[in-house]
Specification:
Blueprint (H helix, E strand, L loop, with lengths): L13 H9 L8 H14 L4 H14 L5 H5 L3 H8 L8 H19 L4 H8 L5 E2 L10 H12 L7 H10 L3 E2 L12
Parallel strand pairs: 1-2
Helix pairs in contact: 2-3, 2-6, 2-9, 8-9
Length: about 180
């Protein structure tokens, strides 16, 4: 049986292919999962997505199952524990940002807002299909969402990170024109 045609980035290894085939570009509406994916995209900054996928289970364990209530309570000892954990990306600024971002995420609920509804509202409410040929690194929409997230206290959410997140969670369908997933998500 021949392999299906995938986006070029998903042809590197089996882990990338599995993520591409089952998750990337599938619309996510769950607020907590949207936040988790945004945190992982922040950790990916300057690294390959393959690196994050290889450490995904480590992140899940180290960050209390991505439970924002628990992460928001992390203190200096937790930061040191995370800095010593080889199962994650050990970058102090990213770790501290994730803790602060948990607090910023919880502020949505504290104000009676749903993070997912808010984010999707800023993204236009429905997935946008790219042309299948050109893939920008950022867009006016990712710039606006980045600015809005920063205004809410989030860090490591620049417009390039936000655009990668938008692709990952299906706000944008940037599967290549010849990719078998393009018309399925």
């Amino acid at each position: 049986m021949t392999e299906p045609t995938r986006c070029r980035w998903a042809q590197n290894n089996a882990l990338d292919a599995a993520y591409h085939d089952s998750e990337w570009g599938v619309p996510v509406r769950d607020s907590r999962l949207l936040w988790e994916m945004l945190m992982l995209e922040g950790f990916q900054a300057g690294l390959s997505w393959s690196t994050i996928l290889k450490k995904r289970a480590g992140f899940h364990a180290a960050f209390a199952g991505w439970n924002p209530e628990k992460i928001a309570a992390f203190g200096p000892a937790d930061i040191e524990r995370l800095m010593a954990d080889p199962g994650i990306v050990r970058a102090r600024a990213k770790i501290e940002a994730a803790i602060g971002n948990a607090r910023a995420y919880l502020a949505f609920a504290g104000q009676g807002e749903d993070f997912g509804d808010w984010a999707w509202g800023l993204a236009g409410g429905a997935p946008v299909k790219g042309d299948g040929e050109t893939v920008p690194t950022k867009t006016p929409t990712s710039e606006a969402i980045s600015k809005a997230l920063k205004a809410r206290g989030f860090k490591f959410v620049g417009p390039v990170i936000v655009y990668a997140w938008m692709q990952a969670v299906g706000m944008v369908n940037d599967h290549a024109a010849n990719c078998f997933r393009r018309d399925r998500v």
